[in-house]
């Protein structure tokens, strides 16, 4: 039997435990925090003819201490063996990681008695080589646990193609501030505002009547076409550049009508593109105001 090996690594708090549980549920032999220096011997034992283990997931992270620096050479050595190996790197932005550590009241492994921020900064430095050599990078900043499990299931169980770019289409209202994690921001306040139509005022872009009103204007359709064309150019180049998270923010005044409509239109076009992981979020749709 051919061996399939998955190295699960990444930032502390980014979801490695969740990932290992998913692999375990799908009949992978899982080992968390195996000492780096024992990996070659472990692989040799697994490759023995009488061994029935054919799928292995190893959790490797900064808890290996100074020996982590030896992992790069070890991985190069075991890549020469006759089996299939992939490196899965789970990441998340610093703000989310700090929040997760505070919510769970855990200390960061590299800063047990100090600031979480310092531990995260040091960890990023130590894991740079692993992220660069990763086959799959998943940013879990805005993924629910079930969404992460679904993404991993799609890649490793259903064997669907994965591209290391997660796209979030985010509607918002300028009066509530521009989303701080935006990569691209587009202002659609040039489209007539349904808020001033009495029968549409209390509805949102989630309602067909509002969407139909917004898209009835030629300028709205042209904008969606032109933005879609630009994204068709940008996204493949972001993938080549190695970007793994893209937040496209679309704003109107209150984030309830026009931005929701246009964000939905862009989302519907992008999900038809093969290989893109696309999510749609409406930050301000339930807030009071126009």
Structural description of this entry:
The chain is elongated and about 75 Å long. Helix 8 crosses helix 10 and helix 9 packs across helix 10 (258-270). The chain is 39% helix and 19% strand. The protein has 10 helices and 9 strands. The strands form 2 sheets. The chain has a 5-stranded parallel β-sheet. It has a 4-stranded parallel β-sheet with strand order 7-8-6-9, with helices on one face. It has 2 domains: 4-157, P-loop containing nucleotide triphosphate hydrolases (Rossmann fold), CATH 3.40.50; 166-282, no CATH class. The chain has 290 residues and is an alpha/beta fold. Helix 2 (39-47) links the parallel strand 2 (29-32) and strand 3.
Classified in CATH, the superfamily of the largest domain is: P-loop containing nucleotide triphosphate hydrolases
CATH topology of the largest domain: Rossmann fold
The number of domains:
2
Task: Outline the biggest β-sheet.
Answer: 5 strands, parallel
Number of helices: 10
Principal-axis shape equals elongated
Keywords: ATP-binding, GTP-binding, Nucleotide-binding
Binding site for ATP: 10-17
Domain AAA+ ATPase: 2-162
Protein name: UPF0042 nucleotide-binding protein
List descriptors.
290 residues, alpha/beta, Rossmann fold, 2 domains, five-stranded parallel β-sheet, four-stranded parallel β-sheet, 10 helices, 39% helix, GTP binding, nucleotide-binding, ATP-binding, GTP-binding
Task: Write the SSE topology.
Blueprint: E1 4-10, H1 16-25, E2 29-32, H2 39-47, E3 55-59, H3 71-78, E4 84-91, H4 94-104, H5 116-126, H6 128-133, E5 136-139, H7 145-157, E6 166-173, E7 184-187, H8 208-215, H9 218-241, E8 245-252, H10 258-270, E9 277-282
Parallel strand pairs: 1-3, 1-4, 2-3, 4-5, 6-8, 6-9, 7-8
Helix pairs in contact: 1-7, 8-10, 9-10
Binding site for GTP: 61-64
Keywords: ATP-binding, GTP-binding, Nucleotide-binding
Binding site for ATP: 10-17
